[in-house]
Amino acid sequence: MPSFFKEYFDRVTAITTIALIGVGLMSIYSATFDTHAASSFYRQVIWTAIGFTAMLITMVVPLRMIQRTAYVMFFSSLTLLLLVLVMGKVVYGSKSWLGVGGMGIQPSEFVKVTTILALASYLSKSNINVANLKDLIKASGFVALPCVLIMLQPDFGTALTFVGMLIPILYWAGASNFMIVIIIAPAFVAGAAIIGTTAFLIVLVLLAVALYMVREDRFFATLMFGFNTMIGVFVQVVYEKLPMYQQKRITTFLDPNNDPLGAGYNVIQAKVAIGSGGLLGKGFLHGTQTQLNFIPKQWTDFIFCVPGEEFGFVGALVVFGLFAVLLFHGVKLASTAKNKFGSLVAIGVTALLTFHVLVNIGMTMGLMPVIGIPLPFLSYGGSSLCSYMIMAGLLMNVYANRKEY
Amino acid sequence: MIGEEFGSPKRKFVIQLVLSCGFLILIGRLYQLQYIYGEQYGRQSEENSIRTVVKVPVRGYIYDRNGRLLVDNRPSYTVMLTPIDFNTKSLPLLAQILQMPEEMVVDKINRGKKYSQFTPTRIKRDIDFRILSLLEEHKDKLGGIEVEMESKRYYPTSARMSHLLGYAKEISDWQLDKLGDYYQPGDIVGSAGIEAKYEQFLRGDKGFDYISQNAKGQIIGTFNNGKNDVPPKDGLDMHLALDVRVQALAESLLTGKRGAVVAIDPSTGGIIAMASKPDYDLSNFSGVTPSEVWKDLTTDEGMPLFNRATLTRYPPGSTFKMLLAIAGLEDGLIDENYRIQCRGAFPFGNRVFKDLHVHGSTNVIESIQRSCNVFYYGLMLKVGFDEWTKYGREFGFGKSTKVDILEENSGLLPSTEYFDRRYGKGKWTQGYLVSLGIGQGEVGVTPMQMAVYAAMLANKGHYHQPHAVDYIYNKWTKKTDSVAYDRHDVQISEKTWGIVREGMRRVVMEPGGTGGIVRIAGIQAAGKTGTAQNPHGRDHAWFIGFAPFDNPKIAICVLVENGGFGAVAAGPIASMCMEQYIYGELIRFKKKAPPIAQTPNDQLVE
User: Fold this and answer.
1) What is the spatial distance between Cα B296 and Cα B287, in angstroms, rounded to a whole number?
2) Does an H or E element contain B264, and which?
3) Nearest-10 crossing angle of helices B494-509, B321-330
4) Which of A170, A172, A213, A290 to mutate to test the interface with B (most CBs of B within 10 A)?
5) For A90-155, where are the alpha helices, taking DSSP H only?
6) Considering CB atoms only, which of A276, A328, A343 is closest to B19?
7) Is the CA virtual torsion A216, A222, A227, A231 positive or negative?
8) Which positions 176-205 of B are in contact with A (Cβ < 8 Å)?
């Protein structure tokens, strides 16, 4: 019996997930128990129970069935997204907005899961080869659809997470290095162009080196280099022409320290919270920053401040460790899974989680722009918790089926 | 060949490398923040030195259709307390000055503390000048206490408009939980009527002042010369379709009664008047609401807080006859020449359904004019239940009107399925239908639905979602935001309208009509009386109508509970309200009245 258990039950995912949720619940409790949002903790407990059920179901559903229904789930979740968009537009008159509050669901969180599944299902077909430009573009379409709908909400940060997930999946599925460079490059070029000419030139040099190293068709490479240069110049020209306040908005986004009481306020307070935690932290429920609510709504996107402040360097390392174990395990699972679909699902889930973890903790510590995405398993929010638990369930499912072709 | 690169060891390595780099950067940053700068941040967290002071915006004003100010704001003084600066030894003194029990003050302080120790919280609103001067006198002993000027609602007109406007009051704990992040304990929030429905627009946006303070929490001055301060944005103004003079008249005519008046502009669905009696005085809610006032309101058996205009539900009585007539005419079951003999009773099965009079030979126009029941008992059986229900739905019965006042009863429009569910399939008989034909029995409508019905009879089938707010004036863009409302048309032939509306005109304008009492000098009006049978006491009186006949400007519904006959109790109220609206004054009390206009009767006959 124990060997059967070991063979089919993914203990690593199960233990790290549960431990992370535990840290999350403690943090939410600490951040809210003495405020008007005290009910958040109990709601999150209920959501945990719901998420747990969802995780167990996801774990035992036959993987082939998930693969076969992936498109259906994908498109129905998109319909839900569309519905939100349409309903959200009805402003006054016929719809009452007061009733909307409370325990709503956020379809965009679930679309993350269905997009991974649809993409994995598409890429695992035997006649699809992402080394082929046409297939690569089609595959990207699976991400473009939800991205556009979410951008319209408008929720830029969430839309970005889809791109963060797409690139590793394409890479894993065999897209050429050249293609990956081409996809990533414009974002870096545009960002650098805004920061300044020097940064722009450095990125261009790096791009040239990268293009040389991946060694594809030289003509096409030169064309792409020229294209990126143009993007950079264009962005710089447009940026210069923007009114001051809009320029300020962009620089504040890239570096929140520019606006200490507006957008930068949270980041500065978050850094103070984490920094003041020191080596061992101030103790559970004793973080002054946390308890005095210096960080508005920190139980959502800025939840990492709580373990950072109350449990210090050691506590934060434990959280990092749990995430690291889970994510490296995900990569390993992707490479051991014999089943192509399972492998792609594992890498997709891992990529999405990685993007969230790095960007969320990065923004809490002032390393990344604040784009408002949750920290998986820790942040308050029913829809996001459930969708991450479903993702954990998917990893466990892939584990159980890893030896099947 | 596809599998070559798929998940190759090289690719696995690259991914692991990226992952490792990511974590190393995070660990490096963590080390930098907590280990290298840890002490510095520790100090900073102890003397976190910027405090936020919330600036409350002025709530939006509300105007009527002629631009008369209905809801104004007046200055009022509020006592604020910053928990961390307050010395609890001064608690008895403070309680004594404010004339509040000590526990209540402590309770308020604790509520504020939950939000923030450093933010001032409201202890008492709307204090009078005596308290203000006492606070000033003991200023040195009362650290952390400030008096802030805020505003409170003031109602400059004589109309009460209790249920329509609703009140804005201090936020309760459950509202705080439900409405979320914008609000703080002590904030004012719209909690009924328009104040609640349009809360988002009326409230405005809070502003913030940033103030520097030292480690002890004492204020040093403004932060960065106030450059970072965000000024509050005042709320937007609501312009209603209401005519406050009609409203005031309707309220005064209902005084001492229980009932409701709803008047609607048939061309837009805008609410001209919405009165419900008994009502309450909104100014009781503008400052501090004494608990005895609240207790009186909630325990009064007249239920003054209950909005009869949208919540009360009674059978429509004879006012429903037009609906059935339309169904019969449209389905081709009867025409204008169809006649029955009314002998004052209608035997059906082993029951006899009564009429008030013996009407003799009656056609459809006369059946409306004289309110002949027998005509409709028979017609109901001809038309059948399902058709009747279908037309009822078209006129908006049995569902909410989506009026922009939050509480609403959707009424009851029975259907075959409903009776099957309630009594079981085959366990109810056609006899149940007969009384529905004259709007009695198991059918319920609200005055709001009836006003919409009257408006549709006036404008020949255009359904407009009834609404109080006509447009919102945005002070910031200097533009008016018009509010979009649903509308749809009911397809009914011009001929049918001609017949039914002629019947309604004769009710008021011709001898033998049941509503002659409604006549207005110089105007052709139309209408229908109704009496809802009440098993518990005196019948309820209905009147619906519109005027002028050819170009209706106002449609109205009047309900007087236990009023007896519709014509007597409800008719005069409707008549005066329509007159007030059309003439802008009550001409009937002036000496010279213009003669009644003549309208040819031939418009319906082909």
Assistant:
1) 17
2) strand B259-264
3) 150
4) A172
5) 107-123, 133-151
6) A328
7) positive
8) 176-181, 185, 196-201
Of B18, B26, B121, B212, which to mutate for an interface test with A (greatest number of A Cβ within 10 Å)? B26
Residues B494, B449: one domain? yes
What are the tens digits of pLDDT across the range A315-356? Answer: 999 999 999 999 999 999 999 999 999 999 999 999 999 999
Residue A98 has pLDDT above 50, yes or no: no
**B232 and B362 co-located in one domain:** no
B45:A271 CB<8 A: no
Out of B9, B26, B116, name the one closest to residue A358 (CB): B26
Residues of A in contact with B15 (CB under 8 A): 168, 171-172, 331, 347
Digit-coded pLDDT (tens) for B232-253: 888 999 999 999 999 999 999 9
Q: What ipTM does the predicted assembly reach?
A: 0.91
Confidence of residue B436 (pLDDT cuts 50, 70, 90): very high
Count CB atoms within 10 A of the CB of residue A171: 23
**Per residue in B75-106, pLDDT tens?**
888 888 888 778 888 888 888 888 888 888 88
In a domain, residue B3? The reply is no
Q: Is the same domain home to B159 and B199?
A: yes
Q: Identify all chain B residues contacting A313, using CB atoms and an 8 Å cutoff.
A: 30-31, 34-35
- Residue B4 contacts A, CB cutoff 8 Å: yes
Q: Are residues B236 and B268 in the same domain?
A: no
* Mean pLDDT computed over B539-554: 94
Cβ neighbours of B201 in A, within 8 Å: 92
Mean pLDDT of A189-202: 84
- Mean pLDDT (chain B, rounded): 86
Query: Searching chain B, which residue's CA lies closest to the CA of residue A37?
Result: B177
Contact B30 A328 (CB under 8 A): no
B161 has pLDDT over 60: yes
Segments forming the whole domain that contains residue B584: 245-279+307-470+481-589
Residues of chain B with C-beta less than 8 angstroms from the C-beta of A173:
6
pLDDT at res. B596: 52
Residue B349 falls within a domain, yes or no?
yes
